[in-house]
Amino acid sequence: MNFKSGFILVMLLVTAFICISGCTGTTTAGEENTQPDSLLVYCGAGMREPMDDIAIAFEEKTGVAIHYNYGGSNTLLSQMELTKQGDAYMPGATSYIDTAREKGFIDTEANVVYHVPIIIVPKGNPAGITSLEDLAKPGIKVELGDAEAAAIGTLSDSLLKKNGILDEVLANTIARTATVNELIVHTALRQTDAAIIFEDLFESEKLDRIDIPKEQNIVKVVPIGSLTFSEYPETAREFVNFVASDEAKAIFTAHGFVTYPDPYYGEI
Q: pTM value?
């Protein structure tokens, strides 16, 4: 083989390699791959209903499907730390995203809605509960979220401590659940006299509610953030921005949420 023939062969091989690389989606460092078919979003279980509707709206707009991993906010944070996979994180309170940011997991973020705690009781309120203080009465059965797993659990402890009744209510607590949805089911089935949940999850046909006065209550802001280890950072940011958009906030409002910012609750 002469020099000219060898040069032509090398050029053909280089061209073929470039074509193959382009067809398989190979990108240079720092460059995002082509638009994904789907994103993985870690989301607090209490946000399931509006976020399912938002996933449908986002897919209709962009063609990108959203797959959720629903669970307790702290449990999801542990999963992210273990796997270093996924595209966005939406916990039940800013404290969890603060922790994720400190660990270097958060890229773009936004505040979306408020989580307002209320007391729920079985339909008809058989235990006659009328206030937060009633949860501390001897003989009352209470269920709370797990403070190690769910945002509602951590918040419930802080709320009861703020009002000086934490020890008394814990003495009445018969179970601590990993998600707020379990609290709803157990209360509706009359397995407990009362539980603390977020107001947007209240179901009037199954439960009665007791509102907690603003001066006694602790209201949290629900954030969302894209993840630094996302393989599709631009699309992940697009989803975060969509969740914080007016279109998505209208979906939250339809599901009983107060959207951020609101003059009554402010910055919290």
A: 0.74
